[in-house]
Give the backbone structure.
Amino acid sequence: MKSHVWRPLFVAIGLVLLIIVVRSFLVPDDFGVWERGYMYGLHRKGNEAEWKKVTVKYRTKAYCKECHAEKVESIDRSPHGIIPCENCHGPAMNHPEDPPTLTIDHSRELCIRCHAKLFTPSSGRSKIRGIDPVTHNPGAECSLCHDPHHPNLEALKRHE
Amino acid sequence: MVHGEAWTIKEFFTYPNEYIYWTIQIVMYPFMTGLVAGAFVLSSLYHVFGVKQLKDIARFSLVFSFALLPTAMMPLMLHLQQPQRGIEVMMTPHFTSAIAAFGIVFSTYGMIVAAELWFVYRQYFVQTVHELKAKPDRTAWESILIPLYSVLTMGAWDISEHALEKDEKAVKILAGIGIPVACFLHGYAGFIFGSVKANALWMTPLMPVIFICSAVVSGIALCIITYVVCMELRKLIFAWKRKQNPDLPSTEELKSVEVNVVTMTVKYLIMFLILAITLELLDLIFRGYTAVKSWDILRSVIYEKDFTKIFILQYGFGNLIPFILLLMPRLTIRRAVVGTLMVLLGVFMMRWNVVIGGQAFSSSFAGFMEYHLPIWPHDMETFKEGFFGALMVAVTPFVLFFCLSRILPVFGQKGGH
Amino acid sequence: MNRREFLKRSIVVVAGMAVPTAALELIDPKKLLAAKPELRWVFLVDTHSCVGCGFCVKACKIENEVPYDANVTRTWVERYVITKDGKTHIDSPKGALNGFTSKKIDIGQGHTKEIKDEEIVQSFFVPKLCNQCENPPCVQVCPVGATYQTADGVVLVDRTWCIGCGYCIMGCPYGVRFFHPVYRVAEKCNFCYHRISKGMKTACVDACPFGARKVGNLRDPNDPVTKVIMTERVAILKEEYGTKPQVYYLGLSKEVR
């Protein structure tokens, strides 16, 4: 090994050692092969907890019911009872602390998500009563005539 | 704006998240690594297989290959969304990914080329240091060269017959190891594409082989062009300097050397070109013949959407015409240059048609995507993944080559190999 | 030192460098054996029930902090319109963020195509989301271990480790991955991992008024989702890729891509 021929090799070995040293500083301790093996499970374990920590924004109807029980029960009896409150009222987050009031979406665009009439013979959409948004009172907010909480025709007549 | 939205035009049904995510830099990446590998293989033809006619171009292409090395990495860094984390490929490599080996293969290859250069130039370093030290009136540049070369010798000052013999042997061995590593470096660039099962155009086991062949083709082509340019410059410089120093080789001598080298090198180029085209056509025919589920959309991309790019620019201007130009008897330098330039265009278009063409259709097989290369950048992204970013990558090896050749003279009588 | 020896030693060195140092020190068979999950998250989509309202897409974007108007989304709904001439027309304007409110089919670049009702023989909606494959090709191709599968089957992305190469986006046959416009790293549906790990349903499941989306545990034989998957005829998407997707569909049709 005395020959000068080996000198580039020593440089190369030095570089490899340098990389291994740098690696020990840069790679987090919990980085490794976890449950799903090397192919699917190589990762930083701590990241799983980070994902679990994401804030929940949509709290579901059960959360609304804690304070607005009467309202929820009444709506549940109407055809719109299947629609989660937060779909129109927006995500509850930490309401009533933050935000104190929710921004309700009154827009036509919201209603026609289901009630724009399409021809969809092999889908549940065909069972929903619909209108042509272009010709049916264009520009008007649906809630001017229809009560979103009690959308049946009897309720509509009550408004007239 | 979403990454990719600026340059992607969608037609018919594409999944909402589909964009051209791999753009011009990923076209440049296999193109540049191809040049690296090709240049190295060319120099090895002389060192390993002793193809004497290539002696003049061997040392040249070795230095050029080294100058090209950083530009194999550059497009990747420009492409990454988080380039500062690129080092993680070395830190936590996930070897089930074709990309993970990049750091290791690339640095192994880099070290082999560097070591080979060192053996080739060691004698020159030692001699020059001795000469310069003896020289009484040194220029500023020469004073810088002394410590630089001294460091570069790494303390190996022995230039006895015996030591030089060892150098020569080491070069031969390194070049021998280098060929498979260079092929691996590039073949695996092909594997990166060939192994993506989600992409109907990319997924073929032929991809790495096709990539290697076209890599060698493009590498040789670029070496020929750069070599000719250098020789033309030398002719001019020598013609001018000959007034003071009549010992310099005459223009005719240089020219005959040049023609010999070019003719010889072109033969190798054509050999690899035939291999590359054969494989590419085999792939195309096989896809058409087996006509699996994806063939409908592939056919409309290959024969309709990308017809000009594939059949006119790549196969026509890039393969057929240079093939004729280079095969016609009594090859002249001018014809060789035109031919090799067109070969380079052909290989570039091949990379383009693979990388961009592979993303020209939705994986729903129900829609198309078109790539519009951003020319004038209006933000960092459209610069990096636009025309000027690609231009920067293309120019860098020449700048590096110029700088390197100040320290490692590519032409000249001194030095053994 | 002869040539053979030199070669031998060089090979040893090169091979030594190629050995995944990371893998060597980190594979622990005990850990692997300990992984006996009694939890495997799966998803069930009923395409008959879906009406294409897009509330799921809206809820997903807000819940998972994907910029609302950006043209990328973790989940989306596709509309299939099959006409008498046997042609299939597919669209998903903005991923159905605002639902389907027009009869016109979006064919890209602001153009639409009108189809007469009389021409239509079938028309339905198909919600899409990450399939949390048993063999996720996106994880296989990640060069740095930034995306991975948890023991309960969900594929996650480590935002602090992703280098943004886009290989996973290329590797996914379902097109569920994209670059997050803010964090500039790979992003995908993770079955609202923060919700399901708290015993909640995913945001899209909770937002669906029609029960077209359900999430469940395949290892629990009493889970209603598992019961449906086991007892009814369900289909999966793009089986031919061998990815073993874990989003099951009721009423899937051959036209669905």
